[in-house]
Design a protein that fits this description.
Blueprint: H1 26-41, E1 46-48, E2 58-61, E3 68-79, E4 82-88, E5 91-100, E6 103-109, E7 115-121, H2 122-135, H3 140-143, E8 145-149, H4 150-164, H5 170-183, H6 187-190
Antiparallel strand pairs: 1-2, 2-3, 3-6, 4-5, 5-8, 6-7
Helix pairs in contact: 4-5
Bound molecules: zinc ion.
């Protein structure tokens, strides 16, 4: 398994419609293994092949329940609508509010070449929709409202809390914000 480079917004591969996979040749298995390693290393909770520069219909997702490795995934039905916060490894440092279906049924091929159906709700459903969008050249920023810098937001929140407590001096507040940046704590939560 190798860690691959994650391409960023502006790279044309992220805007291409990815190609369907007809046969699971060893090269595809290698791609999937590398994508899993790259996602966990980032860290992220989902990754689509175009994000590592490969325009093929493959996604990997792990929101903490189990790892999904899906080939030619397709949403076959969906219901409900809700808005939630999303980010993307290809759009670092930003988050936005995106309206997505609450529940989806995804049909896909697994790595053994068998067709499977997954019923997903909540965060997993959102993640599938985000990743499958990547395969059609769509980024969450195309659909999002209130796109904002995640670190600026954290900094503002932290500073307002700290300034309310007059015991903490301005200088030490800045130092704490800096430490928070370095720890990069929200990344894993948001980035897909
Ligand atoms: Zn993404």
């Amino acid at each position: 398994m190798a860690i691959r480079e994650i391409v960023l917004i502006g790279n044309p591969v992220l805007r291409k419609k990815a190609k369907k996979i007809d046969r699971i040749i060893p090269l595809i298995k290698q791609l999937i293994d590398d994508m899993v390693a790259t996602m966990y290393k980032a860290p992220g909770i989902g990754l689509a092949a175009p994000q590592v520069g490969v325009s093929k219909r493959v996604i990997v997702v792990d929101v903490g329940e189990r790892l999904y490795k899906l080939i030619n995934p397709k949403i076959v039905s969906s219901e409900g609508l809700e808005t939630g916060t999303e980010g993307c490894l290809s759009v670092p440092g930003k988050v936005g509010e995106v309206e997505r279906a609450t529940n989806v049924v995804v049909k896909a091929m697994n790595t053994d070449g068998r067709y499977i159906k997954i019923e997903a709700g909540g965060f997993l459903a959102k993640c599938f929709q985000h990743e499958i969008d990547h395969l059609d050249g769509i980024l969450y920023v195309d659909k999002a409202t209130d796109i904002r810098d995640v670190f600026e937001e954290m900094e503002e929140e932290l500073e307002s809390v700290m300034y309310e407590d007059e015991i903490i001096e301005e200088e030490s507040a800045h130092r704490m914000v800096k430490t928070f940046h370095e720890q990069d704590q929200t990344k894993a939560i948001f980035e897909l």
